[in-house]
Amino acid sequence: MFSIDRLKYFIKCCYKTQVEFGQVCDLLPQELSRYTTQERKPGADILAKFSNAGLNLDWLFTGNGSMYANNEKGKALRNIHNPEFNIQLEKIEKIKELINEL
Predict the structure, then answer these.
(1) Domain ranges in the chain?
(2) How many CB atoms lie within 10 A of CB 37?
(3) Span 31-87, pLDDT tens digits
(4) Cα angle at 14 between 11 and 20, to 5 degrees?
(5) pTM above 0.90, yes or no
(6) Which distant-in-sequence residues (6+ apart) come within 8 Å of 7 by Cβ?
(7) CA distances from 49 to 16, 55, 56, 86, 96 (A)
(8) Tens of pLDDT along 76-102?
(9) 55: which strand partners?
Protein backbone atom coordinates (compact mmCIF):
# COMPACT_ATOMS: atom_id res chain seq x y z
CA MET A 1 0.00 0.00 0.00
CA PHE A 2 1.16 3.50 -0.88
CA SER A 3 2.55 5.20 2.24
CA ILE A 4 1.92 8.91 2.68
CA ASP A 5 4.30 8.92 5.65
CA ARG A 6 7.14 7.46 3.57
CA LEU A 7 6.48 9.94 0.76
CA LYS A 8 6.57 12.86 3.21
CA TYR A 9 9.72 11.49 4.86
CA PHE A 10 11.49 11.20 1.49
CA ILE A 11 10.49 14.73 0.54
CA LYS A 12 11.66 16.13 3.89
CA CYS A 13 14.99 14.29 3.77
CA CYS A 14 15.84 14.88 0.14
CA TYR A 15 14.05 18.01 -1.01
CA LYS A 16 13.24 19.86 2.22
CA THR A 17 9.91 21.20 0.89
CA GLN A 18 7.00 19.85 -1.08
CA VAL A 19 7.33 22.82 -3.42
CA GLU A 20 10.88 21.81 -4.37
CA PHE A 21 9.90 18.16 -4.83
CA GLY A 22 6.90 19.24 -6.88
CA GLN A 23 9.11 21.31 -9.15
CA VAL A 24 11.41 18.35 -9.77
CA CYS A 25 8.35 16.18 -10.51
CA ASP A 26 6.77 18.91 -12.68
CA LEU A 27 3.74 19.07 -10.39
CA LEU A 28 2.02 22.19 -9.11
CA PRO A 29 1.94 22.50 -5.31
CA GLN A 30 -1.80 21.83 -5.20
CA GLU A 31 -1.35 18.71 -7.36
CA LEU A 32 1.31 17.27 -5.06
CA SER A 33 -0.75 18.18 -2.02
CA ARG A 34 -3.53 15.91 -3.28
CA TYR A 35 -1.15 12.95 -3.03
CA THR A 36 0.37 13.90 0.33
CA THR A 37 -3.07 14.28 1.91
CA GLN A 38 -4.51 11.11 0.35
CA GLU A 39 -7.09 13.11 -1.58
CA ARG A 40 -5.89 11.21 -4.66
CA LYS A 41 -3.85 8.08 -5.29
CA PRO A 42 -0.99 8.51 -7.73
CA GLY A 43 -1.30 6.77 -11.07
CA ALA A 44 1.53 5.25 -13.09
CA ASP A 45 2.48 8.60 -14.62
CA ILE A 46 2.87 10.28 -11.23
CA LEU A 47 4.71 7.31 -9.77
CA ALA A 48 7.13 7.49 -12.70
CA LYS A 49 7.77 11.15 -11.84
CA PHE A 50 8.40 10.19 -8.21
CA SER A 51 10.85 7.51 -9.32
CA ASN A 52 12.62 9.90 -11.70
CA ALA A 53 13.02 12.26 -8.73
CA GLY A 54 14.97 9.50 -6.94
CA LEU A 55 12.25 7.76 -4.91
CA ASN A 56 12.33 3.95 -4.74
CA LEU A 57 8.75 2.85 -5.42
CA ASP A 58 9.25 -0.52 -3.73
CA TRP A 59 10.21 1.31 -0.54
CA LEU A 60 7.29 3.71 -0.98
CA PHE A 61 4.77 0.87 -1.15
CA THR A 62 6.32 -1.79 1.09
CA GLY A 63 9.01 -0.13 3.19
CA ASN A 64 11.55 -2.66 1.86
CA GLY A 65 14.99 -1.59 0.73
CA SER A 66 16.42 1.87 0.44
CA MET A 67 14.25 4.93 -0.07
CA TYR A 68 16.54 5.92 -2.94
CA ALA A 69 15.72 4.69 -6.44
CA ASN A 70 18.34 2.73 -8.33
CA ASN A 71 18.69 5.44 -10.97
CA GLU A 72 21.02 8.40 -11.42
CA LYS A 73 18.89 10.77 -9.35
CA GLY A 74 18.49 8.22 -6.55
CA LYS A 75 22.21 7.55 -6.49
CA ALA A 76 22.96 11.28 -6.42
CA LEU A 77 20.57 11.82 -3.51
CA ARG A 78 22.06 8.86 -1.64
CA ASN A 79 25.55 10.34 -2.14
CA ILE A 80 24.44 13.67 -0.72
CA HIS A 81 22.39 12.39 2.19
CA ASN A 82 24.16 9.19 3.15
CA PRO A 83 27.90 9.35 2.40
CA GLU A 84 28.72 6.64 4.98
CA PHE A 85 26.60 4.19 2.99
CA ASN A 86 28.73 4.87 -0.07
CA ILE A 87 31.94 4.23 1.81
CA GLN A 88 30.59 0.84 2.92
CA LEU A 89 29.38 0.11 -0.62
CA GLU A 90 32.85 0.86 -2.02
CA LYS A 91 34.40 -1.52 0.52
CA ILE A 92 31.98 -4.27 -0.51
CA GLU A 93 32.85 -3.73 -4.18
CA LYS A 94 36.58 -4.01 -3.39
CA ILE A 95 35.99 -7.24 -1.46
CA LYS A 96 34.03 -8.63 -4.42
CA GLU A 97 36.91 -7.77 -6.74
CA LEU A 98 39.38 -9.53 -4.44
CA ILE A 99 37.18 -12.62 -4.27
CA ASN A 100 36.87 -12.70 -8.05
CA GLU A 101 40.66 -12.60 -8.35
CA LEU A 102 41.02 -15.78 -6.29
Answers:
(1) 4-101
(2) 9
(3) 999 999 989 999 999 999 999 999 999 999 999 989 999 999 999 998 887 766 666
(4) 65
(5) no
(6) 35, 36, 50, 55, 60
(7) 17, 9, 11, 25, 34
(8) 998 887 766 666 667 777 888 888 888
(9) 68
